[in-house]
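Protein details
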Amino acid sequence: MVTRSLVFKTVYIILLLSIFNSCKEMETNQFTGEPGEVRLITLAPGHFHAYLVQKDMYKQVDPTVHVYAPDGPEVEQHLAMIESYNQREENPTSWNQVVYTGNDYLERMISERKGNVVVLAGNNRRKTAYIKRIVDEGLNVLSDKPMAINPGNFKLLKEAFESAERNNVLLYDIMTERYEITSILQKEIINLPAVFGEIEPGSPEDPSVIKESVHYFFKYVSGRILRRPPWFFDVSQQGEGIVDVTTHLVDLIQWSCFPEKIINYETDIEMISASRWPTPLTVSQFESITGMAGFPSYLNDYLENDTIVKVYANGEMNYSLNGVHARVIVKWDYRAPEGAGDTHYSLTRGSNAKLVIRQGQEQNFKPVLYIEPSDPANIDDFEEVLLREFPKIEEKYPGIELKKLESSWEVLVPDVYDVGHEAHFARVTEKYLQFLIDGKMPDWEVPNMISKYYTTTRALEMAKDSE
């Protein structure tokens, strides 16, 4: 006969075990900022953003990084680039790469569980499924964009964020453009009401916010020609341009125009129109980028006369966000003109001023921010306000100055702020490491990531439907 005392003891033991396991799980996901407590895992690196995360060392991150990947040139290039960082003369890193290659790399990574933060930057076809599986297993994820390349991925990504919350882990994407100084200053001036005024609503034909990005397939990264994997040109694996680079542009619009505001994609976003078009690449151009002679068979559906591959890398979307009309455009070409590189154009129109970032030949292909009064006839009054308010910017960013032009002002930025795109990966990683210490992200980050990927994947769906 079971006594009441024995029942109570059994319940007590079960309760203690439950509390112990709960505390153990919380301890696994709790970070304090102690040296080496973050142990990185890199899964299937296939994009150069994976190794740019490790271009710098971080006190909080253990120098031993476990890499799980299929065998092949992609993981070899990843390891070679990190070794080059270890061997460089100035500020060398000291990463120790422990590598497993094999077709079962995902299951091996999960079963061995050698780290607590997984870095993802590679083939996007399976990325969303990887994210979901990893957060289901209680591991944190720092992911390259895009985290979703089609509406099906978007649905799975929402489930992944729900799982991350249940399992007390952080899922975050790498938004480097938030750390580009002209984008930062544009946001700061938007938040000077006396200068900028209120953001104009605009219209579909004349949006108040425009972001346009021009990229090139052939480029140099860390001083070397970037070898892109052949699948980069298969939009079913990489994603179309309208869901890839546009991730940054949509993010900048949300981040700068509605800072720290939660955006609900179901109520705050209205998609209006979208389109897409291809960039043609010849066999020789494809070989110069990938190092592969001829097109792989999975590109057959995109071939024209067997000599040109059409890559749907270009797109445009028009939508409204909280009643403000925005246009996002992305374009890709083979190679930039001599001395040029990727370029960015940005317009944000307020009731008092227009803020414009240009990056053309006149700017020596460096992004430059201009402040233009909305009413040129009232330029003297605007100048008085601008000169009174701008010291608030100068105080936060010493050395920033204004240069008066004929009917506008150029914002002069000292070289100390021009650190370059590659350095922004360390800034994002440092931000994420602080999130781990805090045990959370700002309340607006997750809903706004969801809204961002709704915008891009819905734009793709609309662009295809309109053909």
